[in-house]
Write a structure and sequence with these properties.
about 400 residues, alpha/beta, Aspartate Aminotransferase, domain 1, Aspartate Aminotransferase, domain 2, 2 domains, globular, binds 4'-deoxy-4'-aminopyridoxal-5'-phosphate, binds glutamine
């Protein structure tokens, strides 16, 4: 067995191949170190809705401080079910199909753990959120990355077909997509359904940015695809909806048999999820008092794209969803993207994420990712600094 660093003579086993610190931690720390404006790690820099903060206070004050039921606070599960009926017209059973979790990252891990056994394979599309591969490997399975091609980052379905083997147990997809801002249309889901039709492959649909879709486009949820829904875990994060990433509350929607398998692990991983936060979220959903996050981010995306036009960065594709925009620095430098992102942080005071960090083999298209979930003044100050970047 491979071993990790030794401490007190103990050999800690390496459970996955990503031995470094995550890029989000690295770039946020570098931003702090250099006093840079942080457009790297994805989190909003503006306050949460007052009503939501008040509900959290009410919960703590009114005694909602003990363990919630293992699958989640019942009014929150009911509110989620009502919300999906309203927004997507899909019926979800609050008792047998919804599990509230400590964030979506946890839900993704738990779904993989429910499905994978040592020796299995799981396919992912790269660039990909950086927890997928370690999560697959922690379960003894092999991660099989299939590349998406810049600048559209559309799926090459022949490559996906070629990657499937008799050992393939799961495919994880992410729409709207971090980091590229691409979104799937109905046809993508139909093609996926065709490919997996005669297999036992399980789909993990990471839809954490489902409410962040721009310019009148629609997010197609796996839950709207009756055939795929039967074999899918759909995974969500309230952090992206209520601008409270630090609350770390997410949920998993899956058919009853899948939910049983998921909860079998969840009950011994965290058992349950923060009660006051669940109370507050149930109330904000039911009362519908928060401004829809899609509207908030649409304005920020438009504002940021308008400003960045004046800088030497090139936008090949405007983000269609998520709160990220990918940009090329082809007119500025031919440095590798990791080096460029560090240089930009150090020399120009703006932190971003190098897109190669979303690839296992560090494939480098010389792209960086900006997070535009920020106050207008933050975006303006960042772009003012970017104006000072010279062309080569
Ligand atoms: N998936 C993707 C694609 C993400 O960008 C994030 C954001 N961190 C997550 C999952 C995890 O969300 P959470 O913060 O709820 O764990
Ligand atoms: N999802 C966020 C991003 O992509 C950050 C998540 C994290 O820090 N792990 O920036």
């Amino acid at each position: 067995m491979e071993t990790g660093k030794k401490g007190f003579g103990i050999e800690f086993p390496l459970k996955h191949s990503a031995t470094g610190t995550t890029i989000f931690t690295v770039m946020s720390a570098l931003a702090t170190q250099h006093g840079a404006i942080n457009l790297s790690q994805g989190f909003p820099d503006f306050p949460i809705d007052d009503a939501l903060a008040q509900f959290l206070f009410d919960a703590a004050k009114n005694g909602f401080n003990q363990y919630a039921p293992m699958p989640g606070f019942p009014p929150l599960r009911q509110a989620i079910a009502a919300d999906f009926l309203k927004r997507y017209g899909v019926k979800v059973d609050a008792d047998t199909e919804i599990t509230v979790t400590p964030g979506a990252t946890y839900a993704i891990y738990t779904a993989f753990a429910a499905v994978l056994q040592p020796g299995d394979e799981a396919i992912l599309l790269e660039p990909a959120y950086d927890s997928y591969i370690p999560n697959i490997e922690m379960n003894g399975a092999k991660a099989v990355p299939v590349g998406l091609t810049a600048p559209d980052f559309q799926v090459d379905w022949n490559k996906v077909k070629e990657a499937i083997t008799p050992r393939t147990k799961a495919i994880i997809i992410n729409t709207p997509h971090n980091p590229t801002g691409a979104i799937w249309d109905q046809q993508d889901w139909d093609t996926l359904a065709e490919i997996v039709r005669d297999t036992n492959i399980v789909i993990l649909a990471d839809e954490v940015y489902e409410q962040l879709v721009f310019d009148g486009q629609k997010h197609y949820s796996v839950l709207e695809h009756p055939e795929l829904r039967e074999r899918s875990f759909a995974l969500y994060s309230f952090g992206k909806v209520y601008n409270n990433t630090g609350w770390k509350i997410g949920y998993c929607i899956a058919p009853p048999a899948f939910t049983v398998a998921f909860r079998r692990l969840h009950q011994f991983l965290s058992f349950t999820t923060n009660t006051p936060a669940q109370y507050a979220l149930a109330n904000i959903i039911e009362k519908g008092v928060a401004q829809p996050v899609g509207e908030v981010m649409q304005k920020k995306k438009d504002y940021f794209l308008d400003l960045i036009k004046e800088t030497p960065f090139t936008i090949h594709k405007a983000s269609k969803g998520s709160y990220f925009q990918v940009a090329s620095y082809e007119r500025i430098s031919d440095m590798p993207d990791m080096e460029f992102a560090q240089w930009l942080t150090r020399e120009h005071g703006v932190a971003t994420i190098p897109v190669s960090a979303f690839y296992q083999n560090k494939h480098d298209d010389h792209l960086i990712r900006f997070c535009f979930a920020k106050k207008e003044e933050t975006l303006k100050a960042a772009v003012d600094r970017l104006m000072g970047v010279g062309v080569r």
